[in-house]
Amino acid sequence: MEPPETIIAGELVLRRWQLVWAGEATAAVRESLPELTPWLPWATAEYDADASRAFLETSIEEWAKGTTFNYGIFAPDGALAGGIGLITRMGPDVLEIGYWMRTAYAGRGYMTAAVEALTEVALTLPGIERVAIRHDAANAASAAVAIKAGFAEVERVPSEIGAPGETGTDVIRERRSTA
Ligand SMILES: CC(C)(COP(=O)(O)OP(=O)(O)OC[C@H]1O[C@@H](n2cnc3c(N)ncnc32)[C@H](O)[C@@H]1OP(=O)(O)O)[C@@H](O)C(=O)NCCC(=O)NCCS
């Protein structure tokens, strides 16, 4: 099971991460820290080029192992606008989607378009019956993206607090294959 390395999402292109984007990824994360830090444990004031390279190296290794498929999101102007990935950790028939958006590109419907396109692809992969999004109960922007992309709430679960905006309750939402 392996998704395509390039996915068209309306005006956006999702591309399997490459190490050459480490510099731009560092800049994108650093300038977005006020929006990312509340919800993402890795998005701290210490985030630097080494952290970015380590993330990209891990992403390349995990893609090869088939455990996580991470993409950079590229805007129509060619800039790196965010990140999105498919994660296999929830079980054999389900893929989880995680995401973050560069602040200068937020609020344009881009993440909704990226999630919709990646979900369509995920549901065509062999054995995949569900796609899930897990977000903190207080993360209203993430909830809005998931709802707009057609994900319905299935469960609320206790969760370890890893980032300062988190409440300790996660909402799990799902979209299922209609086939
Ligand atoms: C969640 C995130 C990816 C959304 O990216 P985006 O490109 O702005 O998403 P979209 O433009 O497609 O949609 C954003 C929606 O969130 C809504 N929104 C944004 N901020 C909000 C807030 N503080 N409260 C409520 N809704 C909010 C927008 O109004 C929009 O919904 P609408 O179209 O119904 O008005 C971005 O905010 C982000 O990177 N957040 C930090 C990281 C994160 O939380 N990742 C997910 C972890 S589960």
TrEMBL record:
Transmembrane segment boundaries: none
Molecular function GO labels: protein N-terminal-serine acetyltransferase activity; protein-N-terminal-alanine acetyltransferase activity
GO cellular component: a single term: cytoplasm
Pfam families: Acetyltransf_3
SUPFAM superfamilies the record matches: Acyl-CoA N-acyltransferases (Nat)
N-acetyltransferase domain boundaries: 23-176
PANTHER family documented for this protein: FAMILY ACETYLTRANSFERASE, PUTATIVE (AFU_ORTHOLOGUE AFUA_7G00850)-RELATED, RIBOSOMAL-PROTEIN-SERINE ACETYLTRANSFERASE
Protein name from the UniProt record: Acetyltransferase
